[in-house]
Amino acid sequence: MTGRLDSVRRAIAETAAACGRGDGAVTLVAVSKTHPAEAVEEALSVGQRVFGENRVQEAKAKFPALKDRFPDLELHLIGPLQTNKVKDAVALFDVIQTLDRPKLAEALADEMAKTGRRPRCLIEVNTGEEPQKAGIAPAEVEAFLTDCRDRLGLPVTGLMCIPPVDEEPAMHFALLAEMARRLGLAEISMGMSGDYETAVRFGATHVRVGTAIFGARPYPAA
Fold first, then answer.
1. Domain for residue 97, yes or no?
2. Total domain count for the chain?
3. Would you say residue 222 lies in a domain?
4. Which of 40, 102, 135, 186 pairs with 158 at a CA distance of 20 to 30 A?
5. Can you give the residue range of the structural domain that contains 154?
6. What CATH number corresponds to the domain at position 44?
7. Each residue of 140-169: pLDDT tens digit?
């Protein structure tokens, strides 16, 4: 696994350099969903510190002990967040990348006010305006951001997207990056194992890479 991790890191660095972007311009979020804590430990042993998980319950079982041992570990929630899991999510995650609806924004604001813990939030943008997919429509992002920040006081620092699987991702990455620039948001999370180099070329500050690092996901038998 460490060889694959090194390869991804090298590809990110080379692509960023070719675009005139400096060292550290792109953060690799190693997506460890469905992989055991031992795989995360192996990545930690070679200096990886930023990880992404899709499910609150899985992360809750895997990461508290690792965070105790590695205080600089940063954990990102990159999957959908149900409002009944907000308490656990705010307690465990350092970044919530999937702020995708007003009801969730309200719940996060309430929990942050109660606990004083304020993980950074990224607004998930439905760049393809797919009816079956979560996220804020591009035309509604500015109003949603204003409400999250001004009324609810949420620490929104960026945008994320998952392009439609059957479309060229570049146009979606370009749209997200331009939207972030226009809104003055510093963090742009886009790109996964199959297209992270394209995302870097279009200005991603965070890429979410799982399979290219950890290999095929070991899904449990039905």
1. yes
2. 1
3. no
4. 40
5. 1-16+24-214
6. 3.20.20.10
7. 999 999 999 999 999 999 999 999 999 999
